[in-house]
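Page 42, continued from yesterday. The earlier attempt failed because a stray header line got pasted into the input along with the sequence. Redoing it now with the clean sequence only.
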Amino acid sequence: MKFFIRIVLVSLLGMGVYTLLSFSPTPKKTKLYYELGFSINPSAGSGVVTFALLSLDSTTHKIVYKQPINEANFVMYSKGILKNKANPKNIDFFKEAGVDCGLILDDPKSLGGVLVTDTLWEEMKPICLPVWDIWKLRYSIHPKYGKGASAVPAEDIGWSANRWRPSHKQTVYLSENYGINTISDYFHGPTMYELFFDMQNPDWIKMYKELN
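This time it went through. Structure tokens are written below.
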């Protein structure tokens, strides 16, 4: 009798475990959204600045995946010239933020009604002057120069208080205003375009350089 009762109890326990496993909720898939971003963190496969299409968790807003892109695509995705996950409606994010990238970027059809498809325009299309200055946030001299560089042209002088990275005050300022923790983090989303806007202001540049 005891043996029979033991078998029944074991069977009931097994059925209970099976039921719990069968009806346990399926883990929810992470919902993602996409933004363009850049990091001033040179690596073997990139230049001084790394550009990327970022996948972010819609709940935590943390970056979960980075798809590297080149500078030209970063600019054209941001301008809405090329459709992409971060800009499916072809919005000009630069224009929305008041950032002037130069008329050379605009489709000739929107300027004069004439379509120009010459080689020069195709080469110049990805240019955006604030994007060229990104490296200046981290370096006082462009990193292409060695330690002993003396004669450096003005266009290769950066805004950082230190040779290879910004001062503590500069880093804190970037963190508080543009959403990063360290200079190696990715700037992305609306605050990134706000940064581009500020970088066009000589008074902002002067203020940033004085944060020693």
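Notes: The first strand starts at residue 32 and ends at 39.
Reminder to self: strip header lines before submitting.
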